[in-house]
Design goal:
Chain B: Its EC number is 7.1.1.-. The complex is a heterotrimer. Chain A is of the alpha/beta class. Chain A has 6 helices and 6 strands. Classes of the chains: A alpha/beta, B mainly alpha, C alpha/beta.
Amino acid sequence: MSKSTDIKIVDAPPGVEGSGFFATKLDTVVGMARANSLWPLPFATSCCGIEFMATMASHYDVARFGSERMSFSPRQADMLLVMGTIAKKMAPILRQVYEQMAEPRWVIAVGACASSGGIFDTYSVLQGIDKVIPVDVYVPGCPPRPEQILDGIMTLQDIVRNESVRRRSSPEYQELMASYNIT
Amino acid sequence: MSDLLLPPEHRYAKMIEQRQNEDGSELSILNLGPTHPATHGIFQNILLMDGERILDGEGTVGYIHRAFEKIAENRPFYQITPLTDRMNYCSAPINNMGWWMTLEKALDIEVPKRVQYLRVIVMELARIADHIICNSVLGVDTGALTGFLYVFQYREKIYEIYEEICGARLTTNMGRIGGFERDWSPAAFKKIDDFLNEFPDIWKEFENLLARNRIFMDRTIDVGPISAEKAMSYGFTGPNLRAAGIDYDVRVMQPYSSYEDFEFNVPVGKSGDTYDRFCVRNAEVWESLSIIKQALAKLPEGPFHANVPDYYLPPKEEVYHNMEALIYHFKIVMGEIPVPKTEVYHPVEGGNGELGFYLITDGSRTPYRLHFRRPCFIYYQAFNDMVRGQMLSDAIATLSSLNVIAGELDA
Amino acid sequence: MALETSVIEDKLTGKFGDKVTGFIQIKDILSFEVHADAMNDVMRFLKEDELLRFNFLTDVCGVHYPDNEVNRQFATVYHMHNWMDNVRIRFKSFLNGEKPEIDTATNLFLSANWQERETYDFYGIIFKGHPQLKRILNMDEMVSFPMRKEFPLEDGGRTDKDDRFFGRKPDNVNNN
């Protein structure tokens, strides 16, 4: 059993401190809050999904990273974890799920299949989910160990922490979305 | 709403209209899946609902079709094991061993007794891992998350044993033609011993949590039943068939890998409902533990692979220093040593039933045709029959207890 | 083994004559060929005969033999199992390469339904009398039958493979 004194709290961002006040940039505060409460939407299709089950179960416990609540509704999720092979038949559904998510949204492609099609270079498999939706973090492995999945989530946390609050309305981002035909 | 989902000529649209005309009540259409969290895998079911009761269902599968059989026709025999891993990824070693045994049957290779016993041990461990997932997730679907979190720690222990044997956790790619790539380390046996000492208490506790739990029993008894005749006609095998009362088990009917040397019971159920499936799997875990104990006690000394230099990779040290070994290594890796022209069908008792490999070779470096008899694919077609007339929440429990693995289902 | 293979062979040839041919024991399973017209009757006989009692349809699958003569370019392979005597049996029906058609087995075994749909999906073999013969694993829009030998395995859209190293045609890359 862990003692309450063992619990680690996220460090405050750099800022100006005095008696009764603390000043910092809005960006860093928002980034910190977002990074530590990423609600995952597990889009598990195959083997990697089983490793994700291990990641969220007692031994590895993804809840330690602020992802306690699995959000099975795309409307209330921040982070789409695509785990496993996405067949061409599945691609439109994946895309629909992504479109249903509210901004800001991030995507992790877990495993070789989601990243590139993996060993399944076949007529029926989508060769990487980045053909249909933009991806923020790729996790290698077939399947990745739970530690690797956690590492992917931590990498995403870094990205989220340092993301500007204005990024989602920037022309570059609009352009990226337009290149995927997502409005 | 329904006309948005279905074309007007669909039979459900007609049934809805007919009902509307009969008594003015409204039937509805529910789209379950393919990414529904409770389906553990991606299948779509379009259900015709009367309130919360399912009148009819139509399943769509193939959302993770990866063309295993086509890939197999283009790969040398050694490169097919990674495909078998990814079929039923909950019990990958059974698939691996099944494939090696198929090849050994095609090549008429006799494997040493020690290898056969080691295979039995690892296959039974895989069966336990498979049943842990199925039964604990059935608990989750009926509202008991605790058991899942508790027993999953012990599934991790099984994965640690796999790692000790072959280096991988989930998709093991274990073994070679004729045996294993290396002898099992003392650490592996130590881990198996530890597992055998610790796990029975945990499994007993898990059993106590659910087996006589009033809520669990109410949620599962008489839910999704199937009669023995129907199960047989639908091609059920494995625990789901045995829950319906037929004691068909490939390990007994057609013993492979020296299963005939071990004493074990084949647990059977009676009514083929969700509770019986739970109980059969539960009892099978105990039988598997007993088989592993017997195999460890009787484990003979001897080589860890058959003496077949044409098909078994030479040790790495020799490949570096011995020309002949290098040539063998090259030829085997490149798949240059063909398998003679033949046809074999080899069944093994997988986690979900009879997993069959039907291999046709034409004397070349790749199979001419390799067909996998995938138990999930064959019995999942009964699902809509089983849930007809049941409540929606019962359908979820039924699906969970059938343990349909999407990777195996869709090939 | 209680049920001798010679008994099976005699009973089948006695009943169906030259519709069943080529009995051969391959490894542990007795195999034979059935003329496509008689497939359903042979299966019914195997299932319902009091002595044979092949009560379980283990497996249905297709095979493509493009190099054979046109009447034998496709085959459907059936595995059946008698649980009482524990005997397995395998039979093949060869079909025409241009018009592969055979009767369905769904009237005898419910499990044949999806297995025949899968065979249709992969090879385009038409099962006459099947209740719902449409694609099962692939998308409905697909036009090819991917398991036929002439269709390539690889997806054309993959751009990270250099075809010089994989012996592929140039049109497989850079096509988007």
